[in-house]
Amino acid sequence: MAVNRGCSLLFAGLLGVVSVGAVAQSASSLTVEQNKLARIEQTLENRQVELEEVENEILGYDYKLERAEKSLADARKNYQESLRELKAAEREHQASPGADSERALHKAKHAFSMAERGVDSRSRRVEFIQTNYEELQARLNKSQAAVADAKARQSSQTARVDGMVKSMLVQAEEQRKAAVAKAQLKPAAKPVMSEPEIPAPTVASLAPVPAEPAKAPDAQEEREIDADLLEYVQGEQARLEQLLADTEQGEKGKQTFRNLSLRMSNGESLEFEFLGHNQYRLLAPVEAGRQTYKINSWKFRRTIPSDDNGVRYVFVLDARRLSRPRLVMYPEYVLSRLD
């Protein structure tokens, strides 16, 4: 979303119009606003991926809850049957005491005890799943709200950028007409070279050009980090730390992919590091604009703001759901704000 530096040259070439500085300032402001839009689009992409993940987890818990409730219903049915058999064995033993009736009573008591435990354990499982389901539902509501907020911000910022572009085009057109009028008012006594035809500015003249690599901020100049991006990274770091909590004892789990690589736009291939529990990580510089990242046979589309051009990003592939792994990515410099 980098603004075209050539737009300043277009306006500066309009026969030395005095307001070129104002146009350049407008172009600089447009670059800032376009970069804000790219940040919002990046946030929206992150939130949409997060929402998809929660929705899939809820679908899984729907199935788990259905199975757990059926299992509990079966256990309760078995409990009632065991209770009837126990009472029948007790009556039989009281009516005709003996070794056979005693063994039957002992067997009935054991079956009833097991049935009772079965109901208890299955009840706890249903409660556990319901609790997790409620937590997931809360996460779903939060994710849906975050996506809706990001979409609203994107729409508002897009309108702002479009308005600035139109304003710049109008300003440039007015300057062009003023330059032509000024040329026509020159004295006719002196031979005047024919004025070059000045094309009207168009939206195409504001097309973006490749951004220059972003400079790392020095100690006195900290990057301004979007609050939503910071919250997103904090959440992803917490998720990863909790998931990998037992890897210190070497319990990383099975490594599904022996070779997992990220194909860069320049053709370079970078290998992921296996962290455990089907989590893979790497660091790599990114290019500004709308990018497509290919990881093995999967493709992921992301927006990179212009001032992150050349900046190293953290890539984390969550491959627990093999049908569609989840790619988490964010600027490495955000991690310094989590300490």
Folded structure, characterized:
This protein has 339 residues and is of the alpha+beta class. The protein folds into two domains: 184 residues, Orthogonal Bundle (Helix Hairpins), CATH 1.10.287.1490; 114 residues, Sandwich (Immunoglobulin-like), CATH 2.60.40. It is built from four helices and eight strands; from the N terminus they run H-H-H-H-E-E-E-E-E-E-E-E. The strands form two sheets. It has a four-stranded antiparallel beta sheet with strand order 2-1-5-6. It has a four-stranded antiparallel beta sheet with strand order 3-4-7-8. Strand 7 and strand 8 form a beta hairpin. Helix 1 packs antiparallel against helix 2 and helix 2 packs antiparallel against helix 3. The longest helix has 86 residues. The N terminus is likely disordered.
User: Taking Cα atoms only, what radius of gyration do you get, to the nearest Å?
Assistant: 33 Å
Element-by-element helix/strand order: HHHHEEEEEEEE
Shape by Cα distribution: elongated
Instruction: Give the helix proportion (percent range).
Output: 40-55%
Strand percentage lies at: 5-15%
Strand order of the largest sheet: 2-1-5-6
Mean of residue pLDDT values? 82
Q: What is the CA–CA distance across the termini?
A: 31 Å
What is the top-level CATH class of the largest domain? Answer: Mainly Alpha
Number of E strands: 8
Tell me the major beta sheet. Answer: 4 strands, antiparallel
- What is the CATH topology assignment of the largest domain? Helix Hairpins
